[in-house]
């Protein structure tokens, strides 16, 4: 039991569970596309009241009341170097694991930095890599030096 009255459940997923990315799912009623099967199933339950399976979790979602004790899941990183790292969702654990422990597949051509996600390397190239953009401070310094040289040439 936590301070806010919710029940705390610790989950220790395996590396396979963390890296297993579910493919996109399509709602069988309206055709809307979801990133994973859980989101699609929840949509079908809440929007279309579709209950094909006799799953207790699905029944609980439909019959949820305010007096029911909320459950907070804590996801723990499986790496021994991160034994005390705890995340509030599998999504955040997956982001951490891929960025910290997975193979770094993408390399910056300018500086050689290796990153695990394509979106991270794109951000790095656009905003962080000194090889792709001129630092503003150096440009201002060069302009001042050029002005001084021109002024000194007049005397």
Automatic annotation (TrEMBL):
InterPro entries: ATMIN, Znf_C2H2_type. One of its GO terms (biological process) is positive regulation of transcription by RNA polymerase II. Keywords: Metal-binding, Zinc, Zinc-finger. It comes from the Eukaryota. GO terms for molecular function: DNA-binding transcription factor activity, RNA polymerase II-specific; transcription cis-regulatory region binding; zinc ion binding. One of its GO terms (cellular component) is nucleus. Residues 25-53 form the C2H2-type domain. PROSITE patterns: ZINC_FINGER_C2H2_1, ZINC_FINGER_C2H2_2. PANTHER family: ATM INTERACTOR. This is C2H2-type domain-containing protein. The gene is Cni-C34H4.5.
